[in-house]
């Protein structure tokens, strides 16, 4: 316990948001997810340009390169000493002890020093110095704190005790690097499969193909809803009627927005269907299982986690490049300088930065809100086309855009109220109202019982008088 105050002053907490209230965390999480959508819109346009203009339609190579860029986060070991301290929890405890011991004299959170006797049940020796153990020293330091400082210290202690070490973070990264890699690969393979099926590389046809893929990818919200109910990380992950309606409304809105495109042709190739649904399922598995393993962002050093994801991608997934090359599925060619420039820029902005922010937004809101945020990129892309390219869409675009945003904000707000199910409550009210009106004309059972009782009493009184 003695090291807990120092935890407030370190950079172990994710950007210092642990002190925010639940409503503030929700607002910040929604803002981050919307920011990620803007980044993904820019990244999607750049990916489309690379695929159609620069002949970089190689999904595995692009995914491998972008995912390996996560290794840049491991530079944190060079700049932050706290990363090295995470190698062993004992080292973290010793460091925090030194910091708190140096701050006890000047920290205003501590009250004036007074003598507080410590009850010792058993003594190991006859001297007081031998009996003053490490735990007793902690209790003495905590006894001098004010109540508010003690509460914050206890919270910091619990979070510090549950923080994952470097070894634990690396073990998680080994598992999730495959899930995240193949989720991103599935999306790019779906886009390429649809383009190959169309046999047309024009920009309009590419946009139409991406629209089909995004409609199928929007089912990730449905997968997340089901998986979160099966593997809940918090009480707010339970399946409710309101969440199901919100996900259905979001999918319906995505379909309307995609149909508003005049060149949109909802022809689904088998390969496109497989890759798009696989990507949607893998994204849901990635978020739900990660949140079940780590229910709070303070437990996991997110940049370190992604750094190990990039490292293990480099170590384990490079043979896929050779296998696909010799199998003739994807020819390996070294990019030219211009292609390298676009690939690196797209990888740093569209993958390295956006994935970290997306996962952070997921912790601040919920896994379902994070997946529904993916669908917002579709209307955002079309809004950008309206503003930049002066494109026009029919009424279905505007009708479909509203439920997509409404579903996202509704699910985000529901994460603030764990047990609130407004749709179910409204349905119950409606049923009660209908039943009340339906049976309002019938006599109440209590009135019938009262009349029958009075009738029986009068009959009994008459019989007694006759006798």
From TrEMBL:
It is a multi-pass membrane protein. It is found in: Membrane. The lineage of its organism: Eukaryota, Metazoa, Spiralia, Lophotrochozoa, Annelida. InterPro entries: EamA_dom (IPR000620), EmrE-like (IPR037185). Residues 273-412 form the EamA domain. It holds the Pfam family EamA. This is Solute carrier family 35 member F5. GO terms for cellular component: membrane. Coiled coil: none annotated. It comes from Paralvinella palmiformis. The chain crosses the membrane at residues 26-43, 63-83, 169-187, 207-229, 241-260, 272-290, 302-326, 338-361, 368-389, 395-414. Belongs to the SLC35F solute transporter family. Keywords: Membrane, Transmembrane, Transmembrane helix. Its main location: membrane.
């Amino acid at each position: 316990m003695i090291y807990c105050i120092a935890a407030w002053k370190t950079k172990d907490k994710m950007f210092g948001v642990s002190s925010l209230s639940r409503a503030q965390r929700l607002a910040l999480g929604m803002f981050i997810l919307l920011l990620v959508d803007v980044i993904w819109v820019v990244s999607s346009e750049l990916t489309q340009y690379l695929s159609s203009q620069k002949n970089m339609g190689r999904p595995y190579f692009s995914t491998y390169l972008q995912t390996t860029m996560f290794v840049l986060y491991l530079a944190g070991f060079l700049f932050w000493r706290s990363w090295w301290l995470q190698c062993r929890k004992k080292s973290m405890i010793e460091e925090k002890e030194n910091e708190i011991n140096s701050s006890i004299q000047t920290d205003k959170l501590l009250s004036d020093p007074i003598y507080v006797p410590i009850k010792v049940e058993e003594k190991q020796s006859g001297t007081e110095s031998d009996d003053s153990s490490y735990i007793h020293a902690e209790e003495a330091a905590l006894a001098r704190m004010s109540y508010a400082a003690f509460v914050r210290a206890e919270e910091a202690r619990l979070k510090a005790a549950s923080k994952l070490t470097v070894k634990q973070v690396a073990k998680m990264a080994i598992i999730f690097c495959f899930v995240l890699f193949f989720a991103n690969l599935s999306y790019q393979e779906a886009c390429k499969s649809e383009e190959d099926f169309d046999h047309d590389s024009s920009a309009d046809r590419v946009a139409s193909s991406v629209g089909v893929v995004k409609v199928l990818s929007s089912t990730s919200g449905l997968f997340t809803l089901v998986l979160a109910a099966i593997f809940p990380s918090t009480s707010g992950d339970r399946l409710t009627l309101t969440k199901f309606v919100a996900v259905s409304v979001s999918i319906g809105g995505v379909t309307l927005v995609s149909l508003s495109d005049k060149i949109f042709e909802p022809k689904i190739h088998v390969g496109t269907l497989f890759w798009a649904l696989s990507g949607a399922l893998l994204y849901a598995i990635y978020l739900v299982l990660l949140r079940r393993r780590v229910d709070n962002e303070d437990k996991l050093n997110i940049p370190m986690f992604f750094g190990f994801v990039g490292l293990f991608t480099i170590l384990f997934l490079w043979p896929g490049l050779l296998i696909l090359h010799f199998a003739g599925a994807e020819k390996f060619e070294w990019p030219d300088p211009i292609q390298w420039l676009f690939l690196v820029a797209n990888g740093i902005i569209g993958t390295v930065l956006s994935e970290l922010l997306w996962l952070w937004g997921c912790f601040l809101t919920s896994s379902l809100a994070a997946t529904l945020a993916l669908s917002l990129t579709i209307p955002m892309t079309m809004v950008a086309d309206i503003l930049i390219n002066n494109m026009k869409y029919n009424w279905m675009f505007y009708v479909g855009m509203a439920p997509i945003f409404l579903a996202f904000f509704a699910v985000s707000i529901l994460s603030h109220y764990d047990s609130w199910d407004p749709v179910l409550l409204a349905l119950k009210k409606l049923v009660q109202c209908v039943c009340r009106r339906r049976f309002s004309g019938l006599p109440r059972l209590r009135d019938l019982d009262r009349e029958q009782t009075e009738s029986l009493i009068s009959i009994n009184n008459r019989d007694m008088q006759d006798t």
